[in-house]
Amino acid sequence: MTVTREEATALFTAIWADLLGVPAGPDDDFFDLGGYSLLVVDVVDRARAAGLRIRAIDVFEHPTAAGLASAALTGRDPGFRPDMVAHVWATSAGPWQAPPSLVPLVPDGDREPLFVVHLGTGHVRLFTALAERVRCGRPVHGFEAIGYRARVRPFLSVGETAERYLSELRAVQPTGPYHLAGLCAGGVVALEMAQRLRAAEEEVAALVLVDLPSGMPELDPGWGLNEHFEYMLGALKVQFGLHDPVADLPGVLAELQRRAWFEDTDGIDDFYRLVVLWAAAQYAQEHYEPRPYAGPVTVISAAEHIDRARAYWSPHLPTARYHVADDVRMQHILREPGVADAFVEALS
């Protein structure tokens, strides 16, 4: 059945109004009406159910009902760097060939180490300041994402990522008891590492998970890596004003560094490659099926997410102790006294 532009416009206008709960017209901007990045997933799902093949980047690029209808019927704008995923795969070595991803955050200490898994963006050194306060006499090592420092393709599964990190962990500490932590999406990897250590009959004395996703999947498990990459860029476009991928990029990168999502040493030339790594981490998380974990575990979640996090994770983490942090932003959550107290309690 052929859909006219008027019918497509009416469909998107109705989707706007239904999802946002406000009156919507064909020229109203989805995000100005209160739309946000995760709701874009619902827009795409509803459009596809009605027979219109759009992608998430189309909503970010054409945020009015009339504009999106036109893009859906005449072909989409290719968006930001649409070939970047293919470029990374064509110009990078395989992930098992990557240099070591374990970096010393606090090298001295005479107790068993604490191993910390990076944010979804791949950055882990932001944990250093908190590590000094909570380590209880332990050296602290952090896992940076595979490919964060070198041109290496990322893994696309949590299990493969966990296995690679465990090979490095065992080289530093061959036997337990082990102490693990994970930041944001890295908490899912840390959980899988703990599962595998316990399956090998090793003791995991502490597992601290900071700002875990409050439910999975968050996006659409049917999306490919390129759609995840485009979604990430679209979300950055809306949140930070990334309209021109060249002119606007320095300001966007500076803001991401201020928020501790990327390191201060990350440069403009690395930006799109690092977003591919970020998208790969999101893709892997979307396809991860958590199993029940009965070991000691501490979950630290922002106040606005704690109820959803507890509802989702309680069946998987029946012995978890939950601690509330007031500020969801990672650069602040790691500074809160209560977060430090939760780490000390778990590690001591």
TrEMBL record:
Carrier domain: residues covered: 3-76
An example Gene Ontology biological process: secondary metabolite biosynthetic process
One Gene Ontology molecular-function label: phosphopantetheine binding
GO cellular component terms given for this protein: cytosol
Domain of life: Bacteria
Keywords: Phosphopantetheine, Phosphoprotein
Pfam families linked to this entry: PP-binding, Thioesterase
Keyword Transmembrane: no
InterPro entries: AB_hydrolase_fold (IPR029058), ACP-like_sf (IPR036736), PKS_PP-bd (IPR020806), PP-bd_ACP (IPR009081), Thioesterase (IPR001031)
Protein name: Thioesterase domain-containing protein
Organism: Longispora fulva
Taxonomic lineage of the native organism: Bacteria, Bacillati, Actinomycetota, Actinomycetes, Micromonosporales
